[in-house]
Amino acid sequence: MSFNLKDILTPFTAWSRVVKEPVTIKDPFTREAAPRYRGFHDNDVQLCIGCGSCEAICENQAIDLVPIEGVEGIETKSGDSGLRPSIDYGRCCWCALCVDICTTDSLRLTNAYTWVDTDPDNFIFTPGVTPKDWYEKEEGWRKPGHGYEFYSHERVHMEELHADERKDSFIEFVKGYSAEQAKKEADRCVACGICTATCPAHMGIPEYIKAVRDDDMEHGMKILYETNPLPEICGRICTHKCEDVCSVGFKNGSDPLSIRWLKRYIADQIPADVDKYKDMLGTGEIAKNDKKVAIIGSGPAGLSAAHYLALLGYNCTIFEKLPQAGGMMRYGIPSYRLPYDQIDKDVDYILSLGVDIKYNVNVGTDITLEQLSKDFDAVYAGTGLHLGRSTRIPGSEHENVYQSVDLLRNIVTGAPVPVEKKVVVIGGGNVAMDITRSMARLQMEKFGEVNVIATSLEDEEHMPADREEVVEAREEGCTIIPGYGPQEVVITDGKVTGLRVWKCLSIFDETGAFNPKFDEADERIFEGDMVIESIGQGMDLSYLSEEIKSKIEFGPRGRILVNEDWQAKGLPWLFIGGDIIEGPDVIHGIANGHRGAQSIDKFLNEGR
Amino acid sequence: MINKFLGFKPDEKLLPSQTVTEDTEIDLSSHKYQKIWLGPNHPGVTGNMAIELTVQGTTVMRAKTHVGYLHRGFEKLIERRLFVQGFPTSIRMCVAEPDTNEYFIARSTEELSGYADAVPEYANWLRMLSLEMARLAGLLRGVPGQGGTFALGIGVQWGVYLRDLILDRFEELSGARVYHMYIIPGGVRGALPDGFKERMEDNLRDIDDFIIRIKKLMFHNSVFKQRAKGLAVITPEMVDKYGIVGTNARCCGVKRDVRKDNPYLYYDKLDFDPPTATDGDVYSRTWIRWQELIQTVDLIRQIMAKMPKKGDIRCKMPNVLNWKIPKGETYVRLESGRGEMGMYYVTDGSDKPRRINLRGPSYNHAISVLEHMLIGQDVADVHAIMVSLQTCPPEIER
Amino acid sequence: MSELDLNNKTSEMLANSEANVKNSKKNFTRPEDEKREVVAPDGSIIEVNPLYDYFSNEKPKEEKPRGGVVEKFLNWARAESIWVLGFGTGCGSIEIPPLVTPRFDMFRYGVQMRPTPRQSNAFIISGYLSVKTLKRVIRTYEQMPSPKYILALGSCTINGGMYYDSYSTINRLDKYIPVDVYIAGCMPRPEALLHGFVKLKQLIKEGKAEKANEYARNFDEYKANQKKIIKDWNMPDYNW
Amino acid sequence: MKELIEKLSSKYELQEVVYQRDNLVFAAISKENAIEAVTYLRDYEGYTHLVMMSCVDWIEDGKYQLLYLLHNPKLKNDIGIKVYIDRENPEMVSAHHLWKSVWTYQREMHESFGIVFPGSPRLEENFVVEGWDETPFMRRDFDTHEYAEKTYFPRGNRKTNDPAEYMRKKLYPNQPVTAKQRKDDK
Amino acid sequence: MNIYAKLAYTILGFLIVLNWGFLMGATMRKIGARMAGRHGIPFKQPWINLFKSISTRTVITHGIMYYIGPVFRLTGGIGLFLFMPMVFTGSPDGPWTNFSFEGDLILIMYFNVFGMLGMALGAGEGGHPYAAMGITRGLAQHAAVELPLTLAFLSIAIQFDTFSIYKIVEAQQGGIMHWVLFTNPFAAAAIILAMLGALGHSPFNLVKAPNEILIGPATEYEGTYLGFMMSAGATLHVMEAVLFMNLVFGGATSWLELIVKSFLIYFWSVFVGMVFPRFKIEQSVTWFFKVPLLLGVLAVIIFMF
User: Fold this and answer.
1) Which of D153, D162, D167, D169 is the best substitution to test chain A (most A C-beta atoms within 10 A)?
2) Which of A559, C81, D24, D58 has a CB 3.0–4.6 Å from the CB of A555, allowing a cystine?
3) DSSP letters along A90-154, please?
4) Nearest CA to CA, how far is C137 from chain B (Å)?
5) What is the pTM of this model?
6) Each residue of A423-442: pLDDT tens digit?
7) What ipTM was reported for this prediction?
């Protein structure tokens, strides 16, 4: 090797570093991490709904969901599972996928990073609940934004007829999803199950959505029929409490999953062929037993009870007052929302399971309940709410003041329906919207223009009707003015000319009782030639004889009390369900029917 | 002159050395040989691995690489995880330069699910930035580290400090120091923070200064030259025979660089030329890496200048919890600091991969190449040779 | 439970685990590790069992602290001079270089690295431990002089971390060797590690870091756990 | 790449030819012809660089799929030669004579899948695990989670709740558990 | 001066040397740390390390020689000290001349090897292959260092016609130009170069080469024995520096001067060591057999004739 003086001397230049100040961090113990640092977890427990998406995405199974009941200062809210994530720092890898998927944006990582302990069992904590000193740190990892999202926050747009096309006909205007759209929509699901818990029927929503993704409609139908025998109907008109709590739509600016449309999509894919249904659901052969059950009313509760009882082998007979099955679903809901052939599709299948139905039989007059109890082993009553409730304001007895229930029924049965040029509807519920929009269509047919005003006590945000119903009604030209309380039907010269209303300030008083307060200064008169009341329905219990009425117990507002097996208290063979217990709601009716069927099964088997 | 006077030939060593090859017979029971273990508990091994050496005196007669001390079964574990869950796991397959593994998972899944072209441009530039930063961080340890193997510790101290500054930038960009978990299928997980470029430029200036200093310290150092020159030569014939890639191949004149050969991301938009050398020894490997250090600094500057100011960081993709990829297979490769890395990715239509298989350069470098090269070397050089081959055990056993 | 019961129980566990080792499907003893007879130069025959020592079956002695001011002073010395074994068992060892270099410079807190277990009294288990490494870690730990301290880094040592479902890595370190300080993180930053050292110093000064004695006391239990998962107990041969 | 595949298919029967990218193609060859084809590609077509060898367990079909991924440094493209071998009796001709790195791959595959490569050096030596006497761990029928739970004492102080089930009980406390307890797909 | 006073001075001197050794080691480490850009260990660290080593509870044994090794090493250090005149006070019987006598240079050269032999004993008995490898290297290098060193010593001895270090120091008094550094530049150069090997810093720190052979001979040592070794190391470093100071750099007339000079001498090896990597053993031996040996031979030749 040749001798090179440069190679010996040059390295010594490194000594020039000795005069430089050390670059060591003076106090490493209090050093702040970067603003985006993924340190220890914090959870805004008030915001969190315990959906468990974090648990699902955690690849290390580091997250458990633990109940927070009894923890001071934390209240559970609607759509809140009552659970909160607890994190095992013996598993966590601080990838922050839990933060990125968090449906409520409640979970975040602070930039704290020091946790030293001698006991390995201590490293489990519930962020936001277990007191830790890093919660006050503002900085840390949050969702990055800039187009970064783990699931789409926007619902796939459902195609429907334009308001101008639909407002003059009763043709179903929601077109339904195509396969591609349905899959895309189904893809948004995080399978948290809050919908399942909220749904009265506890439908296996995540599972059937998964079936949509997998394109396995038959499996989807099986799941639907496990808890709901009326998928076509429910897929259209369900009150979708599931969507209200859907964790995907929890955050501002994001839409909940359209669970209802996906259900409809599954049901729509199967053609209306009873044999195919039986084949698919495996109900071709049902071992029959000799027990007989009478079912009063063919509404959702009755049909549901009949379906599940038939599957269990019971001989069911439905007694229906009206000429066609379906109850309120057929006679209360306009066909632009629920076409009759879809009702028939579901009903036909249930009837094909060996359910007998007797139309135009009015229990109480044509046949007494006592007679039924003798002829049958058990009776299920799902008679529903078919009586309109009046506001009882001055002028409401006028003949041009109608009940929405009656009008809707008349539209279906073909009985003449009075249509005036100007219509005022009192009520802000779904039925009110139905009648509003139905009247609008009739007006279009008759006069070529729409002039309907609907008003409700509740203000815009608290209207009980579904949001899209209100929007669609407005699209169709109806005027909806929420927040006013009706005071008087203005009658001029014996004719209804309008409705006088006051601005409603509050509906309930401090005790929570119904006691609306009005601002008398803000008075308006809605002009109208007819007024339709749609503020709720009442039940018709005329089929109960006095003897039976004396045996069973009644609760407040005339409701029949039932025990947890849905038996009327006092009469073990009488099972009650549907709207007369739960109020007007199709899914509750279906759930009641299902439970009723199971209770009847239990009741009839106990004797053996 | 002096040598001649003393009767030495210039290139002859004072102490006689024997020539040992792979075929030299070794009779272990003859008591002429000793077995020693370099590792796993040994400061001289790169990471947690071991080399079983059979030595005579201090000459290595046989070497066997033992790995598996870091075996975690990643490939099995990722088979159990959703596609999106794969990337936090995969990143831990290599500690020193983890971003490459994230890129594989992201790129493979994107390619197999048809989203390869949907990744936003901004995200791809950020991916390149993070990959080059990782390379820089690796080189800042690796180049002076080669001096460190010969007990020139001071360069390592400077290098690791500067690496730490790069880790600070990583922390800003990705939210973590070492395991960045930054490149996600579909894009990246964070936009460039405000003022990042300025702070990065500050650090790059420090690194420029360091590059000069390390050149004076190592490459103009007579002792380093004596130790490193002629040590553990890789010949061009060996390259294909042993599957040598990256700087280890370039050190003997075989120009292999995935960034040039099969450009990925936007490497074809950057202006660079991978350095090569001809000697193939430890010195030229170090020299190439030093040149790469300059080049990487330059590349980072180019990337920061050419990248768009802002944009989306992730494309619209299916819900990560429900993401399924149709059946298929692919092989994705990139040039890491250690050479070509790649991943064989097989999907079977479910929401989890069927099989992933990482091909790390060390798989060949640390086993077949190292075992071959160590034969006949001095025990003192074993560490230097290991480091010069850039062995990284976690990517061997995974 | 009386001490006798405890002993019975642990010896039973030990016996069970040894039976397990015997019953396992494969025999991991290499030919050179088997018992053999060697003829000494003087003609006498010596039986050699290369595996005996490697089993580390000998129970370590429990070394009682001296107590009093002396112990306090010694504890202070121990705390202010922590010698860490330079054995990077897992990925956490990537954060050791920043600690010994200018940025964090742990030397100023009296923490230094030592290359051999004989001279170290602190062992950083830097993350996950594969079974193969665990065997070396136990061997190393037993070589370290008492009092010795273990710092466990990251999730992996607490409950398996990322690799909770891996067939190759252990889940809980405290089942195999006693741990003094756990540091959360994956991986913990160098600052967190320094915090860990501060905690360890505090423990030592308070005289609470006596885990080496705990290991000696519960040796049988630890050994049973270790042998449950380490099926191949053979240690690498050093000398030929 | 097309010409290469045509040339190759004139010599050997190719199946499942997939052009994954314009510089990457996969093709399956029968077990008998595989090594010959790989040698041909190496010696005559310039595919001198063995990128990797790998193995996939197609347990449904009862096959292991071996992969020889070759790279052509001149044309800068890759070909993956796939070979299906029987899963019950996994044996493959060793290729260790072709490249010096092959035996490592084969040793790994022997350990992790149990594939035998007769003649391959150091095949029986431990590669990454020590004292392994279970099913080879990369096989699909080896459940690593179950093994880990059984072997490694996971910490037992955790309990989780299914939000759907927990919330249902909270919202409808009186309802008897009726619907079939579905196992959530999560 | 009576023997008791002398003994007292000697013991006091040893304590000073030991503590100065510790302090000097810490200072050097701090300088190195500063060059790297950090603060480095506190100055008190070596003492704490010593106490900490003593506080170790477990002691393993590898046999009697294993114990004796560190003792030999310390003996080597003490031996160097005992026969080394520390501070020149103008009288050979002065307070800090210890037990130096006419032929002490030869004895000291012997003691210089003694410590290394002790290590060899201990390392051999310890049985660790790396310890054996380390001590082999150590002895080989020591031999290579000793050769030029001995030649240079010889040259100096010839120059001043004495083997007494005291006399050599005495001869160098009276100004900087009287130092051997200037009066016998070849010997001085040989010593200055060979010193690098004797003080054991890079590029000649092959004995303790952490990334090659763990920590060499001390691999198996722990606890009190390690404490012994650390003390011996500290003493040896100072004493070797003092030896070279006495021989080449004019000795010291006060403790302060001793401290400054020994620091600078020791710093010389650090100065080189920080910026050069380590030689392999054959390179190291070759190196010593080239330049320093040649210089040594020249130095002897010049003064022989």
Assistant:
1) D167
2) A559
3) TT-----HHHHH-SSS-EEEES----EES-GGG-EE-TTTS--TTTT---EE----TT--SS-SS
4) 9
5) 0.86
6) 888 888 888 888 888 888 88
7) 0.85
